[in-house]
Design a protein that fits this description.
Layout: H1 3-19, H2 21-24, H3 35-46, H4 49-66, H5 79-94, H6 103-127, H7 143-170, H8 172-175
Helix pairs in contact: 1-4, 3-4, 3-5, 3-6, 3-7, 4-5, 5-6, 6-7
């Protein structure tokens, strides 16, 4: 994989998620698509295992920095980084059985990665307030409201994965992923 293409693609996905966030938001503005998840699914489906793992960690750290202004995640690095790694692992387990060059596969794997990433992040944020940990509870944080918001965000990300995935698959030769032999 060409890292010199991945870095601007990750930055572009983050910039579009933030810049168009208010334009693309649903409801009260909390459900915004996460284009980093779509990029995660694309890279995990196409790149070698070790490369995809590093890319998932970098995308998760970038997602943590994007969510640092969110009142539910006040300046905390880690929940989305771990969540993106869990999403990567879910796709990685299914990858041998998938058609990698399909927009439908990319959208469904974006759904799976987003579900695992958001569930992991919401779980870690809710655990933060337990008395056995050193952290303070996040103010106005309820697990049900977070899961509801993140479910809508996951479905919205999946819907946008179709056009974004189509564009990403058209740029696949530029990424120079290694070819995988079919058995």
């Amino acid at each position: 994989m060409r890292w010199l293409l991945f870095i601007p693609a990750a930055y572009l996905a983050a910039a579009l998620s933030v810049g168009l966030g208010s334009f693309l938001s649903l409801g009260s503005g909390h459900a915004r698509p996460d284009l980093l998840i779509v990029l995660l699914a694309f890279v995990t489906l196409q790149a070698p295992t070790a490369t995809a793992r590093v890319a998932a960690l970098l995308l998760g750290i970038l997602a943590d920095t994007l969510h640092s202004h969110d009142p539910a995640v006040p300046g905390l690095l880690g929940p989305f980084a771990i969540g993106y790694l869990v999403g990567y692992f879910a796709i990685q387990q299914l990858r041998p059985f998938l058609v990698r060059d399909s927009v439908i596969t990319l959208a469904v794997m974006s759904l799976a990665a987003a579900a695992f990433a958001h569930l992991t992040a919401a779980t870690l944020l809710s655990l933060r307030g337990l008395p056995i940990f050193a952290g303070q509870p996040v103010p106005d944080f309820t697990v049900l409201s977070q899961l509801g918001r993140r479910t809508v965000q996951t479905l919205y990300t999946t819907a946008l994965a179709f056009p974004v995935g189509f564009l990403l698959l058209r740029t696949k030769p530029l990424w120079r992923f290694p070819t995988v032999p079919r058995h």
